[in-house]
Design goal:
Structural class: mainly alpha
Strand content: under 5%
Mean pLDDT: 85
Number of helices: 29
Strand order of the largest sheet: 1-2
Distance between the termini: 128 Å
Shape: rod-shaped
Low-confidence stretches: 283-291, 296-302, 536-550
Radius of gyration: 42 Å
């Protein structure tokens, strides 16, 4: 009946189904007819017959069938696609060799893409080590979406839906496609939710940056951390892998000696790497680009990475290592070395400041305080400010000892941080009141405490520097205090004193009285202005009260 249907059925689709049915039956009476149809070029049933003869493996003409399938598989048309499906049904090692070769065929064009995709789809029915290796390689490296999707489906068929082995290889692919069917879990989503932490650490270096961020977030939120694997990953050359390892180790509650040593060694290594890349970055600025680095872009192609970009990546690793070093208790010298290095290099500023911050993450030991004290008076202005603030927070008495003209009083930003922290009192900087060089830095402390006696002694001392006396007068005027005003009156009425100083005292006195009248704590405080009084209606020139200046 089926043989007759091939000849006499009017509907072509029905004739195709008859050919397919004959192939699946594998009856010896149909072998010659199917071979004839598959060999006849231009026959509308040739494609269907080419696939159908793949079922005739057990027929006496199996050799002829294989040779015909092999011949058709060499083409680049639809018959080649059908021949690959037929080889899947034929199911012989030599046949699968042909299918695997087609899956990795070189070249371009729509037809060849179709043939490769068909070949990969058939590999899902060949549970052979060579096929498994090929599918995993395609998942890791191929960037053609249709081929990648077919490889994922085939791999899931071989490993089973419960296995995450295909997913671990897929997340290493530089393309970052979504290949799961609608409603199914995406490969990355499955790894993030159920992936083994040790296996994720293993594939992490080969993942693109966007994928690394997802995997890193997943690992950092898990209760059980792969400490040994993280320590081993510190020696990796991939910046993202080292960064992940440091963040994992930074969450360890009680790190052992080995962890501390590994973090310290990695910090020294990557700090040296940063400085090496810094030299190349400087050469690139001058026009030398011979030492560019190479990385993979989002689609797997090699792209040129500028020395500046490579330097930035190394800097991120160093800062992450510094944070972890401070958390786990790496010896202070390792962090302090970075904080003191390259004080004149603006590109190292962020790293230096991170090193100072990380000194305060662990226990506040005497060694840490000694290092902060050294940095607070060091050559780097940015580091001085931050170190002074941290030192004042941990040991106010030690910070107060630095408030001398030779040290912190010559650095207003650092001194202000210590003052804000409440570590310095007026008595600590009393000697600065008579110094024309550092008085402006310390003056805010005297004003805040309303230390009238100290400023009064300087303002009335005719042997003191003129600038210091003027500064003391201004400080007394800012206080808005009655006893300070008394000193200003005394200076303003001293007939044999400097005329300009006396004028300054009267101006300061008027400002002080006005501030007290409006209830301000000092002359720098402001209050809403009162509404202006109505002008007099009289015909005279004035008529109003005398101005305060008069």
């Amino acid at each position: 009946m089926l043989l007759s249907g091939i000849e006499y059925l009017e509907d072509h689709a029905h004739r195709v189904r008859a050919v397919q049915a004959l192939g699946e039956l594998g009856d010896p009476r149909s072998v010659d007819k199917l071979l004839a149809l598959a060999s006849e070029d231009g026959n509308p049933l040739q494609n269907a017959a080419t696939e159908a003869i793949g079922h005739l493996k057990k027929s006496p003409q199996a050799d002829a069938v294989f040779r015909l399938l092999e011949k058709h598989a060499k083409g680049t048309n639809e018959i080649a696609n059908r021949a690959l499906v037929g080889l899947r049904w034929f199911d012989t090692p030599s046949g699968w060799d042909i299918v695997r070769a087609k899956a990795t065929a070189k070249g371009g064009g729509w037809y060849l893409d179709q043939i490769r995709t068909t070949a990969v789809e058939q590999l899902g029915y060949n549970d052979d080590p060579a096929t498994r290796d090929l599918l995993l390689k395609l998942l890791r490296t191929n960037t053609d979406y249709r081929l990648l999707e077919a490889a994922y489906r085939s791999a899931r068929r071989l490993w089973g839906k419960a296995s995450l082995e295909p997913n671990y290889h897929f997340v290493q692919n530089p393309g970052g496609y979504n290949v799961a069917a609608p409603g199914e879990e995406q490969p990355l989503e499955a790894v993030v939710k159920r992936g083994d932490a040790l296996r994720i650490m293993e594939v992490f270096p080969n993942c693109r940056p966007q994928m690394q961020e997802e995997l890193e977030s997943a690992l950092l939120t898990r209760p059980n951390l792969p400490v040994k694997e993280a320590v081993a990953s510190l020696g990796h050359a991939d910046e993202g892998t080292v960064r992940l390892a440091t963040r994992l180790l930074g969450r360890v509650s009680e790190p052992d000696v080995e962890v501390k040593k590994a973090i310290g060694a990695a910090l020294a290594k990557w700090w040296a790497t940063w400085q090496e890349r810094r030299g190349k970055s400087g050469a690139a600025v001058l026009g030398s680009d011979d030492d560019d680095y190479y990385d993979d872009d989002d689609y797997g192609a090699a792209k040129k990475v500028s020395p500046a970009e490579a330097l930035k990546k190394a800097g991120e690793v160093v800062e992450s290592l510094l944070f972890t070093a401070g958390r786990v208790g790496v010896p202070t010298e390792a962090i302090a070395t970075v904080a003191k290095s390259r004080p004149d290099d603006p590109l190292a500023r962020g790293i230096r400041l991170e090193a100072v911050r990380c000194l305060s993450l662990g226990k506040t030991t005497p060694a840490v305080l000694d290092t902060l004290e050294t940095l607070a008076v060091g050559p780097d202005a940015d580091v001085r400010v931050l170190a002074s603030e941290i030192l004042a927070r941990f040991d106010p008495k030690r910070a107060a000892k630095l408030a001398t003209p030779e040290k912190m009083l010559s650095d207003r930003p650092s001194f202000n941080r210590v003052v804000i922290a409440g570590a310095v009192r007026a008595a600590d900087v009393k000697a600065a009141a008579a110094s024309a060089h550092v008085q402006p830095v310390a003056l805010s402390v005297f004003v805040a405490e309303k230390d009238v006696p100290t400023l009064a002694s300087v303002a009335k001392d005719r042997k003191a520097p003129e600038a210091a006396r003027f500064g003391a007068v201004e400080g007394l005027g800012v206080m808005a205090a009655v006893n300070a005003e008394a000193v200003l009156v005394e200076i303003g009425t001293a007939k044999d004193d400097d005329k300009e100083l006396r004028k300054a005292a009267w101006r300061a006195l008027r400002r002080s009285k006005r501030a007290r009248q409006r209830g301000a704590p000092n002359t720098l405080s402001t209050t809403p202005k009162a509404p202006k009084a109505a002008k007099p209606t009289g015909g005279g020139k004035g008529g109003g009260p005398k101005d305060d200046e008069e």
